[in-house]
Request: fold
Amino acid sequence: MASATVPNPESSPAGPVEGYRVTRVDSLNSVYLIYAKKNNVTYKIVSDKAKSAHCTAIKAGQNYNFDLTSLYSSTAKAPAGTRYVPTAMAGNLGSKGIDWDGKGTIITLEGDSIRDIFFAKNVVGLCLK
Reply:
């Protein structure tokens, strides 16, 4: 009996895929949520909604080289102009997410699959710079 091989979406016939593969893009209030995978790890990337000219538009199913920073790292600093408040400090949700803008836009962790939230230094809105 012959067995079927299921293709790995993170690799190609030429070898491993470079960068992060965007699996979906969502939005919540004033932010975009970009879900991306690399090495079987899912990343939740937050980006303020903004327009940017002369850039590479981020789309699901494509690969990008994001410059990611963890928002839960002890050395993390939010991008200029962003007012995020860890909910443990704000008393809203404990360690279940962050209040991105200090106005109730809560970005949540997602069980066992997403244990950190990131921003990308080279992303503006849905544009890769």
